[in-house]
């Protein structure tokens, strides 16, 4: 089955620079998210970033391979030293069981078929490999704020947010083991002027990071 690139990708093609500049304007939010991911991401091994965008979540961890349907954002990621494949998460152009870990940050809310994307990630992971997912928790204060203001955002108006419980159910359904969750972003974004606390679990923080391992067959 071939997956067509979603029409919504035109938003990222047109406003790719505005997307990338968000991380400069909100540097403490960005750094908080990076530090939360750092808690769970492997320090070694072959990694892939699904929905790599401009590479903001790849280059801090030395991830050299990324996939994204936006060619314009991919050009920025290339300048950051990332080898870019143009494609979608529902149909990853890689053979099975070759990656030690796969990172997917604030991408699940934009893909057309989240569960198919997670299945594809499982397929390309080695046995014992890790999936690391970063997302906005739909049930958090930040998630509720984004949801209420979707019509005011170029990017999040096309997003579908998911709760921590939904993500846990998907990962359990796909038999990922050793599930660990960290949370951060506990204040309004415009109030954050230092790195936010990074705490295990979920329920308070707006940004969550999940890690699960692919079990033996």
What does this structure look like?
It is a single chain. Helix content is 30%, strand content 23%. The chain has 217 residues and is α/β, with parallel strands linked by helices. The protein has an 8-stranded mixed β-sheet with strand order 3-2-1-4-5-8-6-7, with helices on both faces. The protein is built from 7 helices and 8 strands.
Residues in helix, % = 25-40%
Main β sheet profile:
8 strands, mixed
Instruction: Find the CATH superfamily.
Output: Vaccinia Virus protein VP39
Number of strand segments: 8
Features:
217 residues; alpha/beta; Rossmann fold; 30% helix; globular
Describe what is shown at a glance.
By secondary structure, this protein is an alpha/beta fold.
SSE topology sketch:
Elements: H1 9-14, H2 16-25, H3 27-38, E1 47-50, E2 65-68, H4 71-79, E3 83-86, E4 99-105, H5 114-124, E5 125-136, H6 141-148, H7 164-173, E6 176-184, E7 199-200, E8 207-214
Parallel strand pairs: 1-2, 1-4, 2-3, 4-5
Antiparallel strand pairs: 5-8, 6-7, 6-8
């Amino acid at each position: 089955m071939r997956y067509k690139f979603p029409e919504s990708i035109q938003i990222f093609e047109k406003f790719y620079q505005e997307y990338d500049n968000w991380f400069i304007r909100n540097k403490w939010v960005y750094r908080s998210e990076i530090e939360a991911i750092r808690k769970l991401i492997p320090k070694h091994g072959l990694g892939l970033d699904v929905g790599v965008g401009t590479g903001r979540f790849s280059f801090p961890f030395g991830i050299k391979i990324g996939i994204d349907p936006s060619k314009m954002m991919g050009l920025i990621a290339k300048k950051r030293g990332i080898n870019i494949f143009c494609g979608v998460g529902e149909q990853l152009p890689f053979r099975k069981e070759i990656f030690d870990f796969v990172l997917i940050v604030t991408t699940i809310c934009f893909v057309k078929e989240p569960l198919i994307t997670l299945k594809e990630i499982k397929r390309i992971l080695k046995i014992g490999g890790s999936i690391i997912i970063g997302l906005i928790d739909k049930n958090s204060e930040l998630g509720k704020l984004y949801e209420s203001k979707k019509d005011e955002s170029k990017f999040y108006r096309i997003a579908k947010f998911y709760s921590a419980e939904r993500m846990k159910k998907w990962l359990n359904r796909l038999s990922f083991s050793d599930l660990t969750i960290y949370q951060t972003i506990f204040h309004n974004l415009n109030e954050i002027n230092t790195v936010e606390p990074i705490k295990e679990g979920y329920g308070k923080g707006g940004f969550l990071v999940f890690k699960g391992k692919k079990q033996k067959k």
